[in-house]
Amino acid sequence: MSKIIKLGRNRSLTLTKTRVVDFSTYLGVVLAFLIVNSMLNGDMLSRSFRGQLVPICCYIVMAVSLNLTVGILGELSLGHAGFMSVGAFSGVVAAMSLQSAVPSEPVRLAIALVTGAACAAIAGVIVGVPVLRLRGDYLAIVTLAFGEIIKELINCLIVGCDENGLHVIFNLDGTKTVSDLGLAEGGIEIIKGAQGATGTDTIASFTAGFILIMITLVVVLNLVRSRSGRAIMALRDNRIAAESVGINITKYKLMAFITSAALAGAAGALYGLNFSNLGATKFNFNTSILVLVFVVLGGLGSIWGSIIAAAVLTILPEALRGFDDYRMLVYAIVLILVMLATNNAQIKALFAKALGPVRRLFAKPQKGGAANG
């Protein structure tokens, strides 16, 4: 009987700790938004920092979504920028082609985000079904190849829109131009091959980025805490044991991979609609590595760590611009120090101690019988 009571107590403590972590994550993001938004309205932010607000939101979503694949599922993916590019250009096409039909910018932005997420999810299915049979380095190499293939395909894509609908050309031989689209008078040239998307209406906003971050957190945290999330983590911890108890490996791997891809696509759509000119070269191998750095420095499986790492490491290069030639050296030193700090047991214990009052606030009072057992 005492063992049962002890197990019940341990489970209660685990649930309490989970609620505290989730609540602190939501609360921290909301407080950060309110503070930055008040500073933005008070004209207290520099022009360069204001220009970074939407990209910071996009990179936070990218880091949290990649953490679902790398940290929660335990599979190394190096093609996350490919899903971001799919979402970016499909979102730009959706927003630009609906200018006359949907004059409201927030509605068009919402449609673009949903379109980007849907297209990236489809790409995730196409890539995930054959690729997730691989593991380790092989999976990383194939996802890296996927990102490069997507970049080259977009460089060959020419898209325009007029009263007759969308006009699409794949310029595989390099001989076609925008004039070959045959647009009617008043038509819009959206994607111009290697030039990328030009003349895009910049309808992205910091508020939309905050909403996307909150949606991402709700999706990822609820998935991780669910039965499916426990199955995904079981695959990460011991694939053979998970398979022996009847867990469908392909199903849960695809669930995590497609969810991660869809969120990356939504982040890409927001990112694409923040710039008037956007080329496919922006979403290259370096972008995938950058997002992976966010995840690793923040801690594998740590959602809050991914948020902090993405925000700080996006701001840091611009903040260090005054150091001129030593800027990247200082940046590298900061990365090393952060990596050492996140793997230090004493620092982790310090943060746990700081969260003690919050944890006690959410702790359920023990029943008299359980306390006496």
How would you describe what is shown here?
This protein is mainly α. The protein has 15 helices and three strands. A three-stranded antiparallel β-sheet has the order 2-1-3. α2 runs parallel beside α6 (206-225) and α10 (285-298) packs across α11. The radius of gyration is 23 Å and the shape is globular. The termini are close together.
Structure summarized in a few sentences:
With 373 residues, the protein is mainly α.
Instruction: Please summarize the sheet with the most strands.
Output: 3 strands, antiparallel
Overall residue-averaged pLDDT value: 82
Radius of gyration, in Å, reads 23 Å
Helix-strand string: HHHHHEEEHHHHHHHHHH
Ranges where pLDDT stays below 50 over 5 or more residues in a row are: 3-8, 364-373
What is the strand content?
under 5%
Q: Helices and strands: which structural class?
A: mainly alpha
What spatial form do the alpha-carbon principal axes imply?
globular
Give the helix tally: 15
Number of DSSP E strands? 3
